Amino acid sequence: MADKTITVEQIGSPIRRPAIQRQTLVGLGLNKIRRRRTLPDTPAVRGMIDKVSHLVRVVEEGK
Fold first, then answer.
1. CA distance 63 to 45
2. pLDDT digit of tens for each residue in the chain (63 aa)?
3. CATH fold of 5-59, please?
4. Cα–Cα distance, 1 to 13 (Å, whole number)
């Protein structure tokens, strides 16, 4: 099941947040509010999402 993906959308601004959180958003491919990225569903990506969970949301795609 290596082809599983997860879609995340940025909903918060990294202004007045620690630099590491801004870098995590960039690592996820996000840097503007409402931007979405579809990423592989791996433990590393899940960990990055957990670190900035207050700035992003997981989009539930219709299956």
1. 21
2. 558 999 999 999 999 999 999 999 999 999 999 999 999 999 999 999 999 999 999 998 655
3. Ribosomal Protein L30; Chain: A, (3.30.1390)
4. 33
Edge-to-edge strands, sheet with 56-59: 36-40, 5-10, 56-59
Query: How far is Cα 6 from Cα 39, in angstroms, rounded to an integer?
Result: 5
Contact 51, 21 (CB under 8 A): yes
Write the Ramachandran bin of 3: left for phi over 0, alpha for psi from -120 to 50, otherwise beta.
Answer: alpha
- Please, are residues 10 and 55 in contact by the beta-carbon 8 Å criterion? yes
